[in-house]
Structures are given as structure tokens and as C-alpha cells.
Amino acid sequence: MSTKESSRVRELKTALIAKNAELERISAAFKDETGNGHMVISTEQATAYRNRLAEVKTIKGLIDAEMETADVFDWLGQADGESIGAQVNAGHEVKRARGGREAKSLADHFLESKAWEQMKEDGFQRLGRSHRIESSVHELERKDIFTMSGGQHTIFGFGQPENLGMQERMLRPGRVRDLFPAVRTTKNMIYFMRQTGFVNNARPVPERVAADDVSPATGGPTDRFGRAPRSKSSFKPFRAPIVNIRHMQDAHKNVLEDEPQLRDLLDRDMIDGIKMEEDWQILWGDGEGDNIEGIFNAPGVQEYTGRSSDRPSAQIRRAATQSLLAWFNPTGVVLHPYDWENIELEQDKQGGYVVAVSIALGGEKQVWRMRVIDTTAMEQNRFILGSWGYGAKLFDRAETSVSVSTENADNVERSAITILAESRVGMAITRPESFVIGTFTEYVPTP
Fold it and tell me: Mean pLDDT: which of 42-51, 100-109, 190-199, 205-214 is highest?
């Protein structure tokens, strides 16, 4: 039976290679007609590409199913030993070791820590102890956008049952903090000078001028060397606090014994909760008390209102010009997912989509050479672009961390645990004029 199934897998792999070749032929027909990396594709090409991609996924699913079935038949032919669930889990670990996951999430770091191993050795019975694991924010931000929960959730009709845990976490959306390069600090307060104005008086200066410093040189003894004109810069001192973003959640102690469930709880709820609040603070924080001064509330940020004659993507491009006129190169734009949807669905007069097809192929989201972050932290019909990492800098004071404790309130009586996630961050907006807050105006096509 195994030989028969292996033959079937080979047939499916041959079909998969053929479909993949069709995908490559379709993508090779896409043309860059704008000269800046933004592909223009027709509706027919987009439909054909999606259809072939769906066929590839179907064949890949059949291959996975055939290989799992082969494992079952192999087990039937073997002497008593490990359960099917154990064998499948072992295969899952091999897949991970070969690159099934490109990077580790914070939950992975926690479950591989010495603190976690010690908790398991103690049987989760020793109370009055808080276990803490920290992981570099910079390493976490390099993680793959997909985070799979631990274990392979497949139940067979025989063998030992496997705990499915909770639903696997959803696709991780982009974060505003992803636009910033990683910067560390060891202080709890940031002091900086914010430039509020600049008058450029640079001009050609003659070697010699008359005694009044204005008239041309006379050639006499009263002539003087030309003096350089004085430019003027205005600065204002500011300070920004390092804020502590944290939240906690109670769970039953049994969660500790179910690593897939704990992994999802940490990745999906605790860590994502921290990141969502960071995004809100970066954009909207009022700077009062323990809040970051968000870009929307920083004095000196430019504003732009779109024209009804421009499509949404063109309105973003005109806003970028304001940043360029202030001598800054905008590197990213933040907008609501609905607004990004409108931009991706823009079509030319022939019905072709004008946004870069590289996004559909897994490339980085970009518009007008700026990275795109679509997040619900941004209000609909508004956007913000600017020089992220230069006009504003984000500082990490403490690495993102998770603490697990059995001693909190009445946890002992309830066999409960408390999970705490926190980070310490601050932001300095040194050049607010590099940012432009935009408001979309509904596009009205010209006749």
C-alpha cells in the first residue's frame, strides 16, 4: 500500500510542477508600464493567475493528505509502539527543523526557556513563583507573518487522541512600529531638540567686497574679504517619557499543560494586544501623563486634503510632495484597510489593475516607493506618511516580555495562573514637518 501511495504522490508532484510552470508563464506576461516597479495587469490575467494559484493549493493539499495516509498504512504494518499522534507530532518537529517556520515568536522563546522547563519539572505545583522570559523586540519583528500553533491538529480514527487547543491565530497584520528601525535606550526619559524653523541664506560670496560688505570691491586698501551670509535655525527643547504598555490575563492552570493552547494565548492575544496599543500610541497618543506624544498631536505636522479629480493613490502622491518640499524623503504610509483596498482595486480605462502585482506574489506592500501599513489603528478616509526613523524615532527601553505567576489574588483557590505581557517604549518626533496627515476626498471621474 505504501508503494502505491508513493506512486500517487509522484503523480501529484508532477501535476504541481506543471501548474507552477503555468503560474510563471502568466506572471512573466505582466508588464511594468509605469517605470517604477508598479505592474499593470488585465482583468483576464488576474483571473487566470488566481485560478492557477487555487489549483496549486488544491494539489498541495492532496499531496499532504496522501503522505499522511501513507504514514497510517506504515503504522498498521509495524509492531506496537508510539501512537499515530506522537508520530505525526514528531514529523511536525522535523518539518519545523527544516524551516517550516522562518523565525520564532515570543511564545516559542517562552516555551523553550529554562523557566518553562523548570515549571514543567515542578509539575506546575510550586506556588509563589513568578517566571519571566524576555525576547528581543528586534528579533520578534523579523518573524514570519504567519504564526502556526504548536502541534499538528489531526485526529485519526485509531491511536491516541490529540488536544486541538484553540483555533490557530490569524494572519498577523503589519504594525506601524514596523516602519521604524530598531533603536535601544537605557533611560526612562528622552530629551531632544525639535527644529521648528530654518531660513536658508546660502548664496555665492565674492572673494572681496567694498568696506560696506555690499558694494563690489574697489581694489583699494579699504576692501574686505566677502562675508558669508548667516542662515537661521529655530529649535525648541522637548522631552518624551518611556511608557510602560502592559496587560494581563487569568487562565486555568491546565493551560500550562497544553503548550499549543498556551502558544496561541501568548501570540494571538497577549503580544498582539501590546502591539495594537503601541500603534495607537504612535499615531494618537496625547503626550499627557503616561502617554506617548503621537504624530497626530505633534505641532508642526503638515496637512493635506485630496482633490476630487484624483484617485486615492494620486492623493497620496501629492501629499508626499509636501514632505519632499520640506526636504524629507517619505518612506512609509499608514492607512485604514478599507482605503488600501480602494487603492489596490484601482483600474485603468482598459480594466487592468494598476497596483504592483508583486503584492499578490508575496512582496512588500508599496505605493509610490513607500512601504504601506494598513491597520485599524488608522481612521478610515485618513492617512499619514513621512520619514519614519528620521523625522520620528522609536526607542525600546525594555524588551517585550511575558511573566507567568501562580500567586496573584485568589489564584491558589481557583487553580489559576496570571499571564502578564509588557513593553516599554518611547518616541521622539524631532522633525514633525517631515510628516503629512492626509484626508481622502471622494474621487469624481471626469466625463
Answer: 205-214
The CB-side HSE value for 281 (13 A sphere, CA atoms) comes to: 27
Helix (H, G, I), strand (E, B) or coil at 180: coil
At residue 302, the pLDDT reads 95
What is residue 283's predicted lDDT score, i.e. its pLDDT? 95
Count Cβ neighbours within 10 Å for each residue of 289-318 and write b for 16 or more, e otherwise. Answer: eeebbbbbbbebbbebebeeebbbbbbbee
For residue 378, pLDDT beyond 70 = yes
Question: Of 202, 237, 272, at which residue does a domain stop?
Answer: 237
HSE toward the beta carbon, residue 115, CA cutoff 13 A: 16
CA dihedral 138, 142, 146, 149 (to 10 degrees): -50
Strand 370-374 and strand 332-335: the pairing is parallel
Question: Are residues 270 and 351 located together in one domain of the fold?
Answer: yes
Task: Name the nearest CA neighbour of 175 among 375, 407, 399, 440.
Answer: 375
Tell which wins on pLDDT, 244 or 93: 244
Mean pLDDT value of segment 37-50: 72
Decide if 356 is inside a domain: yes
Domain of residue 216: give its range. 189-237
User: What phi, psi does 293 have (nearest 5°)?
Assistant: -80, 105
Q: Distance between CA atoms of 406 and 398, rounded to whole angstroms?
A: 24
| 230 and 251 both lie in a single domain | no
Q: Is the pTM of this model over 0.85?
A: no
| Statement to judge: residues 121 and 52 lie in one domain | no
CATH number (domain holding residue 272): 3.30.2400.10
Give 388's strand partners: 392
Task: With respect to residue 93, please indicate whether it lies within any of the assigned structural domains.
Answer: no
Q: Can you say whether the dihedral through the CA atoms of 356, 357, 359, 364 is positive or negative?
A: negative
Indicate whether 18 pLDDT > 80.
Answer: yes
**Number of domains comprising the chain:** 3
